[in-house]
Amino acid sequence: MRYSKTITGLTGGGSDGWDIYRKARRMQRDGTEVTMLTIGEHDIRTDAQILDALHRFAHAGHTGYTTFDGEPELKDRIATRLSERTGVPTTPANVLIVPGGQGGLFAAHHAICDPGDTALYIDPYYTTYPGTIRTVGAIPLAIEARPRHGFQPQPEDIARAADAAGNARSLLVNTPNNPTGVVYTRKTLEGIAEICTDKGLWLLSDEVYDTQVWNGDHLSPRALPGMAERTLVIGSMSKSHAMTGSRVGWVVGPEEAIAHMANLATHTTYGISGYIQHAAAFALDLGPAFEEQIAEPFRRRRDLVMAQMEGQNAARPIPADGAMYVMVDIRSTGLSGEAFADGLLDRHHVAVMPGESFGQAAAGHVRVALTVADDLLVAAVARLVELAAELAAQHAEPAQ
Description:
The chain has helices at 5-8, 19-29, 48-59, 72-86, 100-112, 129-134, 155-165, 186-199, 255-267, 274-284, 287-308, 337-348, 374-396; strands spanning 35-37, 95-98, 118-123, 139-144, 168-174, 202-206, 231-236, 249-252, 316-317, 325-329, 350-354, 365-369. It is of the alpha/beta class and 400 residues long. Strand 3 (118-123), helix 6 (129-134) and strand 4 form a beta-alpha-beta unit. InterPro entries: Aminotransferase_I/II_large, AspAT/PAT-like, NHTrfase_class1_PyrdxlP-BS, PyrdxlP-dep_Trfase, PyrdxlP-dep_Trfase_major.
């Protein structure tokens, strides 16, 4: 029997970037103790008071069908949150509730791209981006944000890619960025906004790490002049409230776009569980102080790792201004990120993600997730630095 080209082509015919992660999980199942620094999963569980709210709302009867585009109470909370934090007037009509940030990416691309359109995105990127674009039948086109520019995208590169494609419809950006931890500057975002306006592009802004900013401030491009009408913002409860398994996210954008995506929800998700939505509204009411509490361990661990890597050049951290990761440059070893990560796992039972899992711009790097207890993290990073120093010394030795 034949399968569709869409489903068989989601990964573009190559690896989906998760080989090291799967290998580490197999080692764990076989009884090997592995320090997992791979995925962005909090090492704490959802807070007890949110769990109590889930229980309370479930027992109150919120277990049936819900409004397909989201419960009014939750949409109102998110609209208020965005209005207060960005200064852009936002109403519930600008909000669609989706099953996590990934559901938002899926809905947004379906709203604005047709089969054959080119959808631009920045490399390094979260691993699902090109596959999500392919679900629409659109053509994913990566634009490299290079290490020499601090992984800040260059507007002229975006303009050239849009011109070369000829049928570019959208641009997807992510700040604070996964995997690099880079927070895009106002200058970068203003340049991106200018290109989107000039080229008639929709801008998709993945802002799921907006509460994890260690240096500077988070600026939503939707708040820039003239951008609210062409920007779709993706948000989520996963990172800000340690609710990854609850699968609650949102898309915020122009009313007409949200109305079209609401029709899509009717034909796909058929709504999100009511008791989970009510608990999410409860969680948002806990306010910024609670979100800072969830984010604080990653700020502390980021500082620990950056300090730990001072005074050596074999493993050079990229300044992480946000998110729960540190990207490390290991090009001094002469190895790819994939080869280095594989060796680190085999020799020291430490699992990190290769930079190549996130595109070619991050080749020769590895991503360290700050998602284990401080002592385990420090020990794992020490092994990473040790291996990098050993391999860099070998790589620098003159040929005999």
